[in-house]
Specification:
Elements (H helix, E strand, L loop, with lengths): L1 E7 L12 E7 L7 E10 L28 E8 L9 E4 L6 E5 L4 E2 L17 H14 L6 E4 L5 H12 L3 E6 L2 H9 L4 E4 L5 H8 L4 E6 L3 H10 E9 L20 H4 L3 E4 L9 H13 L7 E5 L4 H7 L8 E5 L1
Parallel strand pairs: 8-9, 8-11, 9-10, 11-12, 12-13, 14-15
Antiparallel strand pairs: 1-2, 3-4, 3-6, 3-15, 4-5, 5-7
Length: about 325
């Protein structure tokens, strides 16, 4: 089987560009015993992938130059030489950034076909972004009914799920997004106060939305948002540090919050986390999230680009506000 892959051509300096990627055609050989051949249907691009483009140690190994990138994908089994899989099975893998592949069966997870739920939801609300939102908010943020939750990047794949779970838990939700249209969508799914952070005074806007302060901050952005969250936090507030996309393409170290000393006086709990450390919660997450979806309590948006050749553009759009909800590539 012929397959096409996106390779990392060069390591980006600052904001990635199209020339950092190249499209390559390869042969995906027939599966050997214990292997499965898959045709990908959907692939995900996610902000954390930017960190893997640096050649430096991290919680996941860096992408290698001249090799296909990796990421979550949903595919259909074409041929199997493993008893656990059959042609037609729907599978999840980390063999993204390609439209087909042959790989060990142990690297695949068989997925159910849920009535009324599109398969690509396993890359978003029922996948890694959904689990990230679920674990970060509930395990670290520990919101209680009546509290105020502040979410940065609220219209993204993770932030939008955080906001809706917080509403399910009985909280007042303040969320930021980068356009009026995104803020309108956040209000349509129940967010109490949606703020366009590009409109001006972020601190003033958050203070007006949460005059009594915030109890939980879910951070996807870092930078000014983190500084504002510290400023408006109530004593004992919990911060779930998921991401800091504002600094992912920085070419120099970015300054820390100028008000970091408030962490002491306010007794703030600030904890970073990696979703892979919470894999044991996935069964409960699937149960809870499937129920919330069925009850209409969680909704989602997708931004879809078509074709493997569009994958670099989809990734670059993550850093310019070109997506609402989950950014996906349909293969």
């Amino acid at each position: 089987m012929k397959a096409r892959e996106i390779h990392l051509q060069s390591r980006p300096v600052g904001l990635p560009a199209a020339e950092n990627f190249t499209l390559v055609e390869v042969d995906a050989r027939a599966p050997q015993p214990g292997e499965v051949q898959v045709r990908n249907l959907w692939m995900s691009v996610d902000p954390y992938m930017r960190g893997r483009m640096y050649d430096r140690p991290s919680y996941v190994p860096p992408f290698q130059l001249g090799e296909a990138l990796q990421g979550h994908a949903i595919g259909e089994v074409i041929a199997s030489a493993d008893d656990g899989f059959a042609a037609g099975d729907l599978v999840s893998s980390m063999w993204g950034w390609r439209d087909g592949f042959t790989a060990p069966a142990k690297t695949l997870e068989k997925l159910p076909r849920l009535e009324g739920v599109p398969v690509q939801a396993f890359l978003g609300v029922l996948g890694m972004p959904g689990l990230t939102a679920y674990t970060g908010l509930l395990e670290i943020g520990q919101p209680k009914a009546g509290e105020t939750v502040f979410v940065s990047g609220g219209a993204g794949a993770v932030g939008s799920v955080v906001a809706q779970i917080a509403k399910i838990k009985g909280c007042t939700v303040v969320a930021t997004a980068g356009s009026d249209a995104k803020c309108d969508w956040l209000r349509s799914v129940g967010v109490d106060h949606a703020i366009n952070y590009k409109s001006g005074d972020l601190l003033g806007a958050v203070r007006a939305a949460a005059p009594q302060g915030i109890d939980v901050y879910f951070d996807n952005v870092g930078g000014e948002h983190l500084e504002v969250a510290i400023e408006v936090a109530r004593g004992g507030a919990r911060f779930a540090e998921c991401g800091m996309i504002s600094g992912y393409n920085a070419t120099e170290p970015t300054p820390g919050p100028r008000n970091i000393m408030m962490v002491v006086g306010k007794s703030l709990k600030i904890q970073g986390f990696i979703v892979s450390n919470y894999g044991h919660l996935r069964p409960q997450f699937i149960t809870d999230m499937s129920g919330w979806i069925a009850q209409g309590q969680v909704k989602w948006e997708e931004t879809v680009l078509d074709g493997i050749e569009a994958a670099p553009d989809a990734f670059l759009n993550l850093f310019t506000g070109g997506n609402t909800g989950k950014m996906l590539v349909k293969l």
